[in-house]
Every structure is written in C-alpha cells, then in structure tokens.
Amino acid sequence: MKGFVQGLFRAATFLGFIFLITGCSDGTLTAGGPTPTPTPGNAFVYTANAGGNSISGFANDGTGALTPVPGSPFAVAGQPFGIAAAPNHQFLYVTSFQNNQVNEFLISAASGIITPLACPTVATTDVQPLKIAINPAGTLLYTINQVGSVTGFAINGTTGCLTVISTTLTDAVGRTITIDQSGQFLYVATGGGGIDAFSIGATGVLTRLAIAGFDSGTGTMLAVKAVPTFELLMATDGGSTNNLRTFNINTVSGVLTPIVTTVPGSSPANPSAIAFNTPLNATTPLFYIANTASNNLTVSNVDATGAIGTTSFTVPVATGPIDLAVDPTGKFLYVANNGSNTVSVLNANITAANATTALISTSPTGGGPESIVVVGHP
Which fold has domain 2-376? Predict the structure, then answer.
C-alpha cells in the first residue's frame, strides 16, 4: 500500500514533491546523558510518520538533546501525514491519509505523552488529507486534501474536539496550506502551479477569492507559508524551476501581489517546506527551506517589503528533509528527515560563522516522517 501511495503523490505533483522517500537510518541517537526533565520554556517535538503508521514524540531539555517521551512512537493507523498543535499547546492534530480523517490528541504538559481525545464524532475530511493549518486564534482547523479540496473544522477550546464546517474545492490537486497572520485569509498551493486564495468567514466558512490568487505558470509550486508577524507570503517552485517567491498580502482583499521571484535554479532541488524564526527576530526573520532532494536547508532572511537577504547559507542535514519547525523561543530548528527516518536539531540562529556546525543532534523517528511540529509547554 505504501508503494501505491507513493505513486499517487509522484503523479499528482509532477515530480515536484517527494512523498515517503525511502532510506535507512542507523538508529543512533547522538545526544546522550540523563533523561531530561521538561520545564517551562522548553518544548515537545512530534513527527507524523506516514511510513511507520506512528507519531514520534520527544522532549527537549533546553540544550537541543531530544529524549523520546514515554510510549513513543505512538501507533496511529492510516498513514499519519500532517501534524499541528493548538496555540494553547494542549491539543495535537494529525491527518490520516488513508482514513480521510483528523486524529485528535491531548498533550500531557508534564510528560509529552499524547492521549486520543474522546470526541463524539470522527473528524472526517475529504479524500487523502495532507497538511494542516490552524488559525492564530486557535478556533479553526483546515486540512488540504490531495483530491483537490480544503476541509474546515471548528475547534472546541475546552475539549479540543473538532466539528466539521464545510469542504471547499481547490483548482487542482492540493499540496500545502497556510493562514495569514491576521487570520482572515487562507492560501493553498496546488498541483496546477498556482496559489488559491480564500477569505475565512466568522463561522469558518471559506469563500474563494477568484482574483486574489496567483498562477506560477510552472505547474511545480511546492510550498507556501505566511509570515506570522506581518502580511507576507513566501512560496517555492520545484521541478526544473527550483526558485523562491515572495508576495504582499492585501489586508483588506487578500490579493497577492508578487514582489520577488528568484531566478530558476537559485534554490537547491525540491524546496518542499518553509519555516520562519519570528521569535528570534519579528521584523526581519530568518527563514529556512527544506530542500528534500538535496539533503540540505536554505537559510536567509526576509523583511516586510518581501526583500530576501543578500546572504544565504546552505546547511547539510540528513537524507530527505521534508518539513521543519522552530521552537517557541527561536533557539532551535527541528527538521523531519523522510529518507533517513530521523529528526535533526539545529541551532536556529544560523550565521556564516556556524553554518557548518549548527547541527546539534539527530534522533530516530518512526518510518517515513512527513511533518513536524514543536509545542511549547503551557
């Protein structure tokens, strides 16, 4: 079945996105020492392992050394793919690619152990849900579904349970999803090489903004991510293009205005995911791009005008970096490596002086991690 799903992804993304890259891990946990005791200000890290039908959970003791939380990896059926946490750090959500649903969990603030929520109904999505986006208020959750749609849910702030709102069609096969910092607009990168734009209503219903989106003309757009501290969107193209784009988000209409388009080949192959370090710098944050086929990360900075820094670094990691996340303090960068079945921890403040020494530790995950999230303690 894994091979079948791989085939679906390769066909759907025109070779622009890598799903379940095969690889081997030596199983070595490079960070040693005693089991850390999590304290406020540190974090739990979780990966959704589609190839292993599991979620891996880790505690960071504040030094970058990861220790598996008790019970990890946690078995989850149906190829868990996307993963996200509520802003209150209490609830974890994971898509099930095969089962067309979102799995809901309670996060123990003391141990990081996750426990399935006892919700009255199953949070059913459209066919083959991939990534998840949660609005800044923590009241709405959306999945991008590979079939070509977005499914929206209301989040119960007390129980964490999801109630379906609606499913809205996209132009083409869905790839990834993001919500702007104001919580007004949702953007989807599709297999047609475009960005679909939607307004988010008061009840969470999406309305397609026909003139607000963008068509790259390449058919290979892979990632799209809104900056959490100002109205800017960044996207990447893959395939033979392999470049970066920035867009201004109109705060009234949601319209995307292209600002920067780097030349083809300016990014290493398959720039598949984007993260921003706004805790470190809210006005000119570092951004990180996971270059899945190149086994490395691109690091630079961006400002509110959409200008990309003149200096960028390429940082090697393990095989097949597919997703990444920054901890709440901006100190650590976490990378899910699909090909080597590992998670890497790096010093998030990457500069020219430490670009080759930023890696702190590497720990084994379950098979085929596709997404990663870092959760600060409540």
Answer: Methylamine Dehydrogenase; Chain H (2.130.10)
